[in-house]
UniProtKB/TrEMBL annotation:
<dbReference type="Pfam" id="PF01381">
    <property type="entry name" value="HTH_3"/>
</dbReference>
<feature type="domain" description="HTH cro/C1-type">
    <location>
        <begin position="12"/>
        <end position="67"/>
    </location>
</feature>
<dbReference type="GO" id="GO:0003677">
    <property type="term" value="F:DNA binding"/>
</dbReference>
<feature type="region of interest" description="Disordered">
    <location>
        <begin position="74"/>
        <end position="95"/>
    </location>
</feature>
<protein>
    <submittedName>
        <fullName>XRE family transcriptional regulator</fullName>
    </submittedName>
</protein>
<dbReference type="InterPro" id="IPR010982">
    <property type="entry name" value="Lambda_DNA-bd_dom_sf"/>
</dbReference>
<dbReference type="InterPro" id="IPR001387">
    <property type="entry name" value="Cro/C1-type_HTH"/>
</dbReference>
Length: 95
């Protein structure tokens, strides 16, 4: 069984990576300590709704997407399509 903590952890790590942000970058934008972000990404701790909203806003997604099990895959596929379109010169398919 996958817990919400694990889903949030996975989504946070993937979204941050796709956005090209370090934990320090995300910390500065979201106003959350970098070590706490690391702890969330490693599923060591859960987080409050307020912090989840801050993280989601900093990453450019809706708060609910942080808790959805398919968010990371969708964002990764979207990023891959955008990168492929950028290198091929063809427009990316609509999201």
């Amino acid at each position: 069984m996958t817990t919400i903590r694990k889903i949030v952890s996975h989504n946070l790590r993937i979204l941050r990576g796709v956005r090209g942000m370090s934990q320090e970058d995300l910390s500065a934008i979201a106003g959350i300590d970098r070590t706490f972000i690391s702890d969330i990404e490693n599923a060591k701790y859960g987080t409050s709704i307020d912090r989840l909203e801050s993280l989601a806003g900093a990453l450019g997604v809706a708060t609910w997407e942080m808790c959805h099990p398919q968010t990371a895959d969708r964002i990764r596929k979207q990023a891959d399509a955008d990168a492929s379109a950028a290198t091929s010169g063809k427009p990316a398919p609509p999201h």
